[in-house]
Amino acid sequence: MRPSIGILMPCLLLAVFAVGAQARDNWPTPPGSEGAPAQVSGPLQGGTADHAKFDELRGPFEDGRAVTRACLGCHTETGQHFMQNIHWTWSYVDPETGQQLGKRHLINNFCTNSRGNEGMCAQCHAGYGWKDEDFDFSDETRIDCLVCHETTGNYYKTPNSAGSPACSVMFEGKPPIDLAAAAQSVGLPQRANCGACHFNGGGGDNVKHGDLSTALKAPPRTLDVHMGEDGLNFACTACHVTDKHVWAGSRYRIVARDTEGTGKPGQRTDVATCESCHGLSPHPVDSLASFKLNDHVQSIACQTCHIPEFARGGVATVVDWDWRTAGKTRDGEGYHEEGYIQGNGGHRYTYKSIKGNFTYAEKLVPAYDWFDGQMHYTTIDTRFDPAAESIEINGFEGSRADPASRIWPFKRMHTWQPYDKGNGTLVYTHLWGEDDAAYWGNYDMAAAIEKGMADFGLDYSGDYGFIETISWWPITHMVAPKEQALGCGDCHTPQNSRLASVEGVYMPGRDRNRWLDIIGTLIVAGTLAGIIIHGLVRFFSPKSEHHA
Amino acid sequence: MTLQRVKIFSRFERFWHWSQMLLIVVLLVTGFGLHGFHDIFTFEQAVTLHTAAAMVLLFLWLFATFWLFTTRSWRHFIPSLSGMWGVLRFYSFGIFKGERHPYRKAYWRKHNPLQALAYLMLKIVLFPAIWITGLIYLFYFAWRDIPDAAQWLHLVALIHTGAAFAILTFVLVHVYMLTTGHSFREHLMPMITGFDEVDLTPEEEAYLRKDQPQDIR
């Protein structure tokens, strides 16, 4: 009886402890398989048609639009579906704020604005020929089906207008595209299709997002546990599920806290949240720590712990851009300088006459804050104090008290960019064009802004300056395998907590009451001192009349 | 009245005391680790150990409380001022002069008045303060959506930590007290063997000799 109780207790303790501290580095993640299987692209699998056998796609095709006409010949409704999505409209009105968003209108703190520069920027419009305001958004034959669906990898796009000779030289000498081969190769979009634009946002590889780079074309599972070729090999559309050519998971409409989870039996097809597959209690409850982790789901976005760093995989992202230094020339010609070698050995430009200076970073620890999913943009229509120290391109809110908010990771992008000093607005800069005002080729910022604003009838004081701007990019890709996720101690620690700056919560380990600690320590130390003094006095006291 | 060696700590009492000691040490070490005072354990290990030890201790206390009331042993902890002055005077002065401790254990009164008061305060103030706040803390997931939950958690953490400092202080004094009076060993042995010298009335002695001979030597 006695030994059994004595043994039971330590065993109980040990058992609970052992489960909690189970080695993290041999957790089962999806097993690697021999050779890369096909990319998993969401529900549409096991096609019943081989496009290579279609007479309509035999070619030859005189141009991309001819291919589109062939596609629409069978896919009769797709054109109308497609023309609703933002890949086509580049326009989105936020239903909450009423703000007019979309690439067509917004100003960012990278190349600033596509408006007026469509001849260049609309290379990434999923259509053919958008170079100015005359583009016909109701002509479905202008849809570019191939850029998303062809799988030969030889398809590419060039600017829709010539631009300055100083720039157009970059696009000369490309091999001709075999449109028939491309048309016959169509399938569900692969990572390389989406990545052709989304990996190169901001004017180069991973420049904009930080968590979307060409490293994701063929990533190992350590870079992205879902997309890893040696793991699940997800294509983008495995998560960005599609309904009538409209995709879930737009940055303009973020679900910061999904309270529905997987929903009814069968896969949800309306969101790209982690919870839509992993549910609302994603950690298997095999230990106390897992139970607590499931509790954290209420306040912490999955991404916060599961993407410990972004811009991994050897491709750097731009974290700082300085337009003030743009426009320097050598012998009247623009130039560029290489000054950064990234993880995969690639050289990156740290200065370009057409854009200014860039600062790169890799393996970045995100910034963290409460986020309710709602961005508030500084648009071309927003007036601000021209003397403001800095402007948030997309500010956001959130708090512990708001049930829609969670703590999210962000890339912080800092830029010095031109603005209207007189009116306190951002400006449309005319960068691309064949005329004398286009900044790229002429390097005259005053003229470029003058024309950029005048072309759209916008109020411009004529006095431009440079202002510091911040943009916030929610980090959601490059999800690491779970054994590389953050541990409790990365946040619950008095020093260097990941969440050191996050307010509105009491975090054991991070937070303390300074006075309680001081008083408590003094009392304990005082007691020890008292004991020592008491003991010393006893030790040196006469030990007379020792008791029996 | 004669001094006799009598079993005053039953097997359960001794088991209770030592497992409680072990658990409180684990709780103090892991708790101050969680608080950020040291990093002997990772946060995850400390949370796991701390919670497990707390659960086991609460379970133990449930039994101990049951035991105290069913065996009427709770009466040992009734506070009394009688003899208090003598004990206080002893620890303040007499102890330095080599005087004898003024208190004699009685069969139904095994703690001196100061001890009884200290243990009572521990049982009805400090321990409840720490286990009630501990449970509230642990069940944060269940009340996290009430208004100002984070501020309430802060208050709960404050009380919990404060009580921990107080218990640590108690432990230090408690252990030091073992060195007073007789020897450290003589204070320790009763809690191991169960037997200590107790002033017995002739009636108590007669009763024990007849009905519980194994409890008296």
The count of strands of chain B amounts to 2
- Give the overall shape of chain B, derived from the CA principal axes: elongated
**DSSP strand tally of chain A:** 15
Annotated CATH homologous superfamily of chain B:
Transmembrane di-heme cytochromes, Chain C
The mean pLDDT of chain B is 87
* Amino-to-carboxy terminus distance of chain B: 16 Å
| Number of helical elements of chain B | 8
Whole-number radius of gyration of chain A? 29 Å
Helix/sheet category of chain B: mainly alpha
Percent range of helical residues of chain B: 55-70%
SSE order of chain A: HHHHEEHHHHHEEHHHEEEEEEEEEEHHEH
DSSP helical segment count of chain A: 15
**CATH architecture type of chain B:** Up-down Bundle
Indicate the low-confidence ranges of chain B by residue numbers: none
- How is the main sheet of chain B built? 2 strands, antiparallel
InterPro entries (chain A): Multihaem_cyt_sf, Multiheme_Cytochr_ET, Octahem_Cyt_c
Region (Disordered) (chain A): 27-51
Keywords (chain A): Membrane, Signal, Transmembrane, Transmembrane helix
Transmembrane segments (chain A): 515-537
Overview of the molecule:
Chain A: The chain crosses the membrane at residues 515-537. Chain A: Residues 1-23 form the signal peptide. Chain A: Residues 27-51 are annotated as: Disordered. Chain A: This is Tetrathionate reductase family octaheme c-type cytochrome. The complex is a heterodimer of chains A (548) and B (217). Chain A is an alpha+beta fold. Chain A has helices at residues 2-20, 64-74, 78-82, 86-89, 118-121, 146-149, 165-168, 179-184, 191-198, 275-278, 288-296, 302-306, 439-442, 445-454, 514-540, and strands at 92-93, 100-101, 242-243, 246-247, 317-322, 336-341, 347-352, 356-361, 367-371, 375-377, 390-392, 394-396, 406-420, 425-426, 464-474. Chain A has one domain (51-279, 286-486). In chain A, a hairpin with a 4-residue loop joins strand 13 and strand 14. Chain A is globular, with a radius of gyration of 29 Å. The radius of gyration of chain B is 20 Å and the shape is elongated. Chain B contains 8 helices and 2 strands; from the N terminus they run βαααααααβα. In chain B, 65% of the residues lie in helices and 6% in strands. Chain B has a single domain (2-215), classed as Up-down Bundle (Fumarate Reductase Cytochrome B subunit). Chain B starts with a strand and ends in a 6-residue tail after the last helix. Classes of the chains: A alpha+beta (548), B mainly alpha (217).
